[in-house]
Every structure is written in C-alpha cells, then in structure tokens.
C-alpha cells in the first residue's frame, strides 16, 4: 500500500474463518517480523483469488 513517508508499507488480505480482530493479526505478525515489515492494515475478504498456477 502506498505511504507518504515510507513509499510503501505491508498490508494483509485475510480470509476470516473465525473471530479474530485486525489488532490480533497485527500483534501476531509484529512478534514474527522486524519492525519495518509490520502490517499497517488488514483487509478482510471472502476469498483470495487464485491464478491458473494456484
């Protein structure tokens, strides 16, 4: 996603199958990655489109 200062920032597209919040996802990812790879926004979608190769 475009960002004024950083140029681009990570976001996540999540198929929600249970009760989980955007904050919970951000906190989980923040524990796994270095600070500049933290997710800035979570988009909940019904499905992730697949290409012919999967």
TrEMBL record:
Keyword Ligase: yes or no?
Answer: yes
Pfam families according to UniProt: AMP-binding_C
Protein name per Swiss-Prot or TrEMBL: 4-coumarate--CoA ligase
What PANTHER family does the annotation carry? Answer: AMP-BINDING DOMAIN-CONTAINING PROTEIN-RELATED, LONG-CHAIN-FATTY-ACID--COA LIGASE
Q: Which organism is it from?
A: Pinus taeda (Loblolly pine)
**A GO MF label:** 4-coumarate-CoA ligase activity
Q: Which InterPro entries match?
A: AMP-bd_C, AMP-bd_C_sf
UniProt EC number: 6.2.1.12
- Name the family the entry cites: Belongs to the ATP-dependent AMP-binding enzyme family.
Q: What Gene3D superfamilies does the annotation carry?
A: 3.30.300.30
User: What region holds the AMP-binding enzyme C-terminal domain?
Assistant: 2-54
- Which key words are in the record? Ligase
Record lineage: Eukaryota, Viridiplantae, Streptophyta, Embryophyta, Tracheophyta
Q: What class of enzyme is it?
A: ligase
Kindly state which reaction or reactions the protein catalyses.
(E)-4-coumarate + ATP + CoA = (E)-4-coumaroyl-CoA + AMP + diphosphate
């Amino acid at each position: 996603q475009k960002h004024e200062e950083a140029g681009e920032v990570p976001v996540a597209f999540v198929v929600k199958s249970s009760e989980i919040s955007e904050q919970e996802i951000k906190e989980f990812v923040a524990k796994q990655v270095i600070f500049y790879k933290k997710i800035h926004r979570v988009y909940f979608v019904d499905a992730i489109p697949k290409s012919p190769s999967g």
